[in-house]
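Entry:
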Amino acid sequence: MQLSIRSVLPAVLDSVSQVVWVVDHRGDILYTNPAGLAALGYDDAEDLVGLPSHEILHPCRPDGTLFPASECPMLQPAVTGVPTHGDDEWFRRRDGSFFPASWWAAPIDLPEGRGVVYSFFDATETRELERARRERDAARIRADESRAAQRRIMQGIESVRRQTARDLHDGAQQRLVSLLIGLRMTRDMLPQSAADAAALLDRSIADAQTAIDELRELAYGVYPSVLQVKGLMAAVESLTERCAVPTSVVGEYPRRLPTEVESNAYFVIAEALTNAVKHAHATHIRISIELKEVLRIEVADDGIGGVAQDAGSSGLTGLGDRVSAFDGVVVIESPPGRGTSVRAEIPVPE
């Protein structure tokens, strides 16, 4: 059996793709398999046998500085009797070009003394794969950081919206209401003969009421209080009551979500609805809201369609930014003459 193994060993060494070198106690090459020739660009084993392995592989570093054989870690097993390994070495081909290499060196007892068995391979592809992986990971990290920054910006905007709406309601709006009440009380106290003063007060009362109505509309557009109090479905239903195009709301919304998610979804719907009213020439708009594993929302109209895929000219550009900030996706379908559908899916936080 032992003779059989020895007889097939040369065939095994000739067939493997891994480089196998044997060097003597001086570091001179005693044997190389075909893979060892191909790795360095040699044609025949006689071109290498008898030559110093260190001088063949790396007499100098890629920057041109000399690399003394006394410092070569691949020769150390001949002295220490301990195997070694390295991944950051550079070897020189026959044509003078260098390549990164991973190598293994182990001691071997030879008749003349302890030698070394080398095995190494060209690590260029491995390093390229590693570099590509690092770049991919870095790109993913940058994308995650970008989404996190977008999310913080969106959360900051929604916080400012809520605060602004509260300030408008509690500040200027309440002052106007007090003014309106005072004007009406003053109007009621005037005698019937003061016609000019009464007319002036009537105009002031009308102006105050108009200002209150406009301020209420502004506060609602900034951040509707119903969204914070009753949630997304109620806020969207309230939005449709003010829409110039007949609009229906369908779907299931069984529970509340974090404020920033509901607010983001509401303004996606509001913006899509506004664009449908302005550009679609629709006779009906349908809003669908469904909350399961993700929050799915859709605004579909029966208008003229034909919205460009990038939606740049239709005012829908910001929808993708809004939804992607929460790791969601937006799909816009708008075949000419068949209406437009804006669908968004937003992941639901646990």
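The mean pLDDT is 82.
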